[in-house]
UniProtKB/TrEMBL annotation:
Molecular function terms, GO-annotated: catalase activity; heme binding; metal ion binding
One Pfam family in the UniProt entry: Catalase-rel
A single Gene Ontology CC term: peroxisome
PROSITE patterns linked: CATALASE_2, CATALASE_3
Protein name: Catalase
The Catalase core domain, residue ranges: 7-394
Binding residues annotated for heme, in chain numbering: Y339
Organism: Aspergillus ibericus CBS 121593
Family: Belongs to the catalase family.
Active site: H56, N129
Function, in words: Catalyzes the degradation of hydrogen peroxide (H(2)O(2)) generated by peroxisomal oxidases to water and oxygen, thereby protecting cells from the toxic effects of hydrogen peroxide.
Alphabetized PANTHER family for the sequence: CATALASE, CATALASE 2
Length: 501
């Protein structure tokens, strides 16, 4: 019989949906411990927040699909790229990075692009950004970088002094700073921006061979950005503007679309290439490695519930399918540990079982069992240790009608010769060369360089130390003399104005 009443979480009906049980005497009353409904309601409320992501806390998210549009079988054996027209469901979560979940989403920041492709060979996560490069190439710096973009440990205020102090001390990130303070640092909607893997990955074939690849996801809607004035105004008027825009376009079936490309480099080309392909402060210039389209993607379904579908979503660069493999980029290698580690802390040991994270391909992982909040049937009576000959494996067979097989997804790896020693990244002379290339690209758009000066100046002028400001002008000047000068003039103009008032 269909249930027609509200219940406790245990399924039992309760007396009233809206009042507590009280021992009444006239209008007054005493609460009783027997009011399970009240106690459960209050206790659950106190526990309904889970830890906020330490970075990428604020986000929009939606479901959609990826379609393979071009023959890729010469470069990868990945099943989702095996046939033109093959579609794969996906989940995309687009976030800001530094500020908290309640912050305004149009303010200047890098935007994260976390995408889960539910392929027929398991989940593939692309955890990208809307910029093709990153601030650092040594993963040890990651917490420092992010703290410097967050709040001052004493004042609890965002602190431009910390921000510029970090970047002046770690100037390999100036290429990324050019992206951040360009017009693209304030996208006018999440539909109007691109995403990039940044990292080098590998596409692999069944014969063990591989190529290096970088992914590019380009908006079909075209790039559209806010000016700094617009982004600040919208932040005040509607701090959730980007989330709302994404939700509403999908509700009205105006589905946003992107084209997906790769740049492909052979291992031989990598050996002699002038840029270190494992350094994520660098791009592969398009003129050297042109884009090759592999697919399209679109978003076409809003979450049914934000918490279950988006907040509980966990993405990791370590989620890869056969045909795709990691490269030796140290930041990628570190993220492959760090993201699942964060998910275990935030969501618990069995976060992969949550519906939004669960693979749509059959899962048979009997050596990962038990743990808090395990709501699977835990592989029944199947052996929980390797090498067993005692018991027939039944669970997987029940699921698929097939006995489980072992498939090796290992492919040829890069060959390394060397010795283990302490190594510290320094600053290299060519760290400013690609930034200079971007400065020229920016210069092609009328007024963009002037806007860039203004975008930096409003932030940098808040730095109290004139010596630090000077260091920053010098570093921008190493990219391009005119850039350093332009930033200096615009910034010192605002500093002087502030002193006058
Ligand atoms: P190209 O002139 O061949 O490519 C420039 C690329 O820069 C464009 O294809 C476009 O990428 C992107 N771009 C255009 N306008 C802007 C802008 N206002 N802000 C940020 N990016 C913009 O030169 P290179 O390939 O030699 O790259 C020069 C610089 O361009 C790089 O140092 C890098 O910072 C930037 N860039 C390069 C990319 C690459 O993978 N080579 C990708 C993105 C940026 P898109 O079509 O993806 O929008």
């Amino acid at each position: 019989m269909a249930q027609r009443y509200y219940t406790l979480a245990e399924g039992c009906p309760y007396a009233s949906n809206s009042t507590s049980v009280q021992l009444r005497s006239g209008n007054a009353g005493l609460l009783l411990m027997q009011d399970t409904q009240l106690i459960e309601t209050l206790a659950h409320f106190a526990r309904e927040r889970i830890p906020e992501r330490v970075v990428h806390a604020k986000a929009a998210g939606a479901y959609g699909e990826f379609t393979c549009t071009h023959d890729c079988t010469d470069i990868t054996s990945a099943s989702f790229l095996s046939e033109i027209g093959k579609t794969t469901p996906l989940l995309l979560r687009i976030s800001t990075v530094g500020p908290e979940a309640g912050s305004a989403d149009t303010l200047r920041d890098v935007h994260g692009w976390a995408m889960k492709l539910y392929t027929d060979e398991g989940n593939l996560d692309w955890v990208f950004n809307n910029t093709p490069v990153f601030f650092i190439r040594d993963p040890l710096k990651f917490p420092s970088l992010n703290r410097s973009h967050k709040r001052n440990p004493q004042s609890h205020l965002p602190d431009p002094n910390m921000f510029w102090d970090f970047h002046a001390g770690n100037p390999e990130g100036f290429h990324q700073l050019l992206h951040l303070f360009s017009d693209r640092g304030t996208p006018a909607s999440l539909r109007h921006m691109n995403a990039y893997s940044g990292h080098t990955y590998k596409f692999t074939l069944k014969d063990g061979s591989f190529n290096y690849v970088k992914f590019h996801i380009k908006t079909t809607q075209g790039i559209k950005n806010f000016t700094k004035e617009e982004s600040v105004r919208v932040a005040g008027e509607n701090p959730d503007f980007l989330i709302q825009d994404m939700f509403e376009v999908i509700e009205r079936k105006d589905y946003p679309e992107w084209k997906v490309y790769v740049q492909v480099m052979t291992p031989e080309q990598a050996e002699t290439y002038r840029w270190n392909i494992f350094d994520m402060t660098k791009v592969w210039p398009h003129s050297d490695f042109p884009l090759r389209q592999i697919g399209t993607m679109k978003l076409n379904r809003n979450p049914r519930n934000y918490f279950t579908d988006i907040e509980q979503a966990a993405f990791s660069p370590s989620n890869m399918v056969p045909g795709i493999a990691p490269s030796a980029d140290p930041v990628l290698q570190a993220r492959m540990f760090s993201y699942p580690d964060a998910a275990r802390y935030r969501l618990g040991t069995n976060y992969q079982q949550l519906p939004t994270n669960a693979a749509k391909a059959p899962v048979y992982c009997p050596y990962q069992r038990d743990g808090q909040m395990n709501f699977s049937d835990n592989y029944g009576a199947d052996p929980n240790y390797v090498g067993s000959s005692l018991q027939p494996i039944t669970y997987y067979q029940d699921l698929t009608g097939q006995p489980p097989q072992t498939v090796s997804t290992l492919t040829e790896h890069e060959k390394w010769v060397g010795q283990v020693s302490n190594f510290q990244y320094g600053l290299y002379e060519d760290d400013f060369e690609q930034a200079a290339g971007l400065w020229k690209v920016i210069g092609k758009e009328p007024g963009h360089q002037e806007r860039f000066f203004g975008n930096v100046a409003v932030h940098l002028s808040q730095v109290k130390s004139s010596a630090l400001r000077k260091r920053v002008y010098g570093l921008f000047g190493r990219v391009d003399w005119g850039l350093g000068e332009g930033v200096r003039k615009a910034t010192e103009g605002l500093v002087n104005d502030a002193h006058k008032t």
